[in-house]
Amino acid sequence: MSKREQGRVLAIQTLYQWDLRGEEFSDQADDFLSESTQDPEVYFFARELTFGTWQFREQADAWIRRAAAHWDMTRMAAVDRNVLRLAIYEMLGRTDIPARVAIDQAIELAKRFGAGESGAFVNGILDHVMREALPDLANSHGKDRADRQPQAQDPVGEHDAAADI
Question: Which of 1, 63, 68, 156 has the fewest CB atoms found within 10 Å of its own CB?
Answer without folding.
Answer: 1
